[in-house]
């Protein structure tokens, strides 16, 4: 057992997550926890939403990237960092590098939207274009690492990144919530793995559950099978969750997560709308997956104290999936108010 | 002067606003104040956003309606309250009456959207339909008052309503912000008048400025002329600000407000987008008017501490005015994070 423990939590300890929180303190916000009595009523449980949509760069990814950059030795970091990504991790790494005053090389496919390249450049990142396929991206990354001596910081399959993401749940537990269950979305598994480790250290009675779109359910299938099954053709509105589960992530999740539950895109959109209308906050579709899971499985959570990590708020406002004004949605639209229960 | 003072602040005093805050405490949230370093950078000043979009019923109107209902004597209130409105005041009054366990009669034009009627009914309000013109609405209200003995609570031209709205600014000053300027949107003038009174009592060095759409600029024109000029054909995206300035409101505003500044609908939409993208919160267009005023008149506010009351968050999500994803807007979209500075 001790061996297994060592293997699944190497280098990450109760103490090291606390140290990570200290380390990244000047780079991230201690985000608020939001409460909505109207949504509680609908869900039949007491929900606590940790608002990482208010985080720097608009997503929890700021934590892991900051931790990974700051843990590099002075010598290691002097040639900069690199990754291949076009999502929140790219922006988060660029910003972490900017604060640390080192270069960040971000390999992006040549057909990536100009706006995403600009987001990275806005944080001082250096965009390296490559052919739009995985092989070219991986080769592009290798080339950058070789040419500049930059250190590769992957988006989730990395202990320092996972340790950084774990600081989010640490803040929840430090604020004194006695949660029965804590849910996060799962894509690559950085947030879920970090959250599960944090719960195992600080609140061992809290169950941790992953929430996943049906159209990108490799984590659920891997969790059930006991080995990693990569996602072939993911298809979901939750564009932050298209990636396949990482290896380190899978090992931690297998050992410390209670279950992984899935929901349809229609359920995700409905939960997303509820959060916009009742809580009056902007989130990206991936964020709505855990609430959709709770609403789909009410009996599982009945009467419980349930935490949900809202992972980010970077959404294309011109493409929100709210097509029609429905009878229900507008009577909902008069929020009964949400309030912040912790900072 | 003393006479003038009495006329413009009758019954409303430093003490009475505090008492109002106590009175409505079980009915409203103490809303948070939000801060965004990214928007500060763009605006060239230090902005503090008081988030009434997180208020009960999704708008500051909850305060005035609650105060007016609770100030009624037990005898006066037993036959219920009435108003003619289809906006946030209707929902706020219905809810205040529901909490006070008395009936609320809301006169609404027969062609009002079913969804708005449902919002009122959702709070237990009794919807009374009338022909869709002002005369019919006023007659409908008279009939209700006569038939049921209900007390008319107007949406803004009423001292108890103004006193209730003043509790919002009281919370800001009590939280210890030393604001140079405080801005609110102005429609009927309930929020602006209440805010101006609160500032005159609790923070006399804070200038209070009204923010108004060009397409509904009767408050600006009345303020300049020195007498009330009703709005004939208002036309603006800020649908909460279509009403003409009330009489009591005009008197208070004339005496305690520094200036009223206007902005175009394009400027309102641009400020609204900025708040969604950078602060990750949902607001209605009327809320964005004060930020638009600040961005249009940067030199006026340079280096100042500026408060803005975000008045509400009840917006039709299927009709958000964000048509295209622009280069700028998306690089903005990666928020540098917002944080809550007070609760």
From TrEMBL, chains A, B:
<keyword id="KW-0456">Lyase</keyword>
<dbReference type="GO" id="GO:0018114">
    <property type="term" value="F:threonine racemase activity"/>
</dbReference>
<dbReference type="InterPro" id="IPR036052">
    <property type="entry name" value="TrpB-like_PALP_sf"/>
</dbReference>
<protein>
    <submittedName>
        <fullName>Serine/threonine dehydratase</fullName>
    </submittedName>
</protein>
<dbReference type="InterPro" id="IPR000634">
    <property type="entry name" value="Ser/Thr_deHydtase_PyrdxlP-BS"/>
</dbReference>
<feature type="domain" description="Tryptophan synthase beta chain-like PALP">
    <location>
        <begin position="27"/>
        <end position="312"/>
    </location>
</feature>
<dbReference type="GO" id="GO:0070179">
    <property type="term" value="P:D-serine biosynthetic process"/>
</dbReference>
<keyword id="KW-0663">Pyridoxal phosphate</keyword>
<dbReference type="GO" id="GO:0008721">
    <property type="term" value="F:D-serine ammonia-lyase activity"/>
</dbReference>
<dbReference type="GO" id="GO:0030170">
    <property type="term" value="F:pyridoxal phosphate binding"/>
</dbReference>
<dbReference type="GO" id="GO:0005524">
    <property type="term" value="F:ATP binding"/>
</dbReference>
<dbReference type="GO" id="GO:0000287">
    <property type="term" value="F:magnesium ion binding"/>
</dbReference>
<dbReference type="GO" id="GO:0003941">
    <property type="term" value="F:L-serine ammonia-lyase activity"/>
</dbReference>
<keyword id="KW-0460">Magnesium</keyword>
<comment type="similarity">
    <text>Belongs to the serine/threonine dehydratase family.</text>
</comment>
<dbReference type="Pfam" id="PF00291">
    <property type="entry name" value="PALP"/>
</dbReference>
<dbReference type="GO" id="GO:0030378">
    <property type="term" value="F:serine racemase activity"/>
</dbReference>
<dbReference type="InterPro" id="IPR001926">
    <property type="entry name" value="TrpB-like_PALP"/>
</dbReference>
């Amino acid at each position: 057992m001790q061996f297994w423990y060592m293997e699944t939590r190497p280098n990450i300890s109760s103490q090291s997550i606390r140290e990570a929180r200290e380390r990244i303190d000047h780079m991230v916000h201690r985000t608020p926890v939001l409460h909505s009595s109207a949504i509680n009523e609908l869900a039949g449980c007491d929900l606590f939403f940790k608002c990482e949509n208010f985080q720097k760069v608009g997503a929890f990814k700021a934590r892991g990237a900051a931790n990974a950059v700051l843990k590099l030795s002075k010598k290691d970091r002097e040639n900069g960092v690199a990754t291949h990504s076009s999502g929140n991790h790219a922006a988060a790494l660029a910003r972490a590098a900017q604060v640390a005053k080192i270069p960040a090389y971000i390999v992006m496919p040549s057909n990536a939207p100009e706006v995403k390249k600009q987001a990275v450049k806005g944080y001082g990142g250096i965009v390296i274009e490559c052919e739009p396929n995985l092989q070219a991206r991986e080769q592009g990354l290798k080339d950058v690492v070789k040419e500049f001596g930059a250190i590769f910081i992957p988006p989730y399959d990395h202990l320092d990144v996972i340790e950084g993401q774990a600081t989010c749940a640490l803040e929840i537990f430090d604020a004194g919530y006695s949660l029965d269950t804590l849910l996060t979305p799962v894509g690559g598994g950085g947030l879920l793995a970090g959250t599960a480790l944090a719960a195992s250290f600080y609140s061992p009675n809290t169950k941790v559950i992953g929430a996943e779109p049906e159209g990108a359910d490799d984590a659920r299938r891997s969790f059930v099978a006991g080995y990693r099954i990569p996602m072939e053709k993911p298809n979901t509105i939750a564009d932050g969750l298209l990636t396949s589960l990482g290896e380190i992530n899978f090992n931690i999740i297998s050992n410390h997560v209670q279950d992984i539950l899935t929901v349809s895109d229609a359920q995700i959109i409905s939960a997303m709308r509820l959060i916009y209308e009742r809580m009056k906050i902007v989130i990206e579709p991936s964020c709505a997956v855990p609430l959709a899971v709770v609403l789909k499985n009410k009996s599982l959570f009945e009467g419980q104290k349930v935490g949900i990590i809202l992972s980010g708020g970077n959404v294309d406002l011109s493409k929100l999936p709210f097509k029609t004004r429905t009878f229900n949605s507008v009577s909902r639209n008069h929020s009964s108010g949400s309030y912040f229960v912790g900072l």
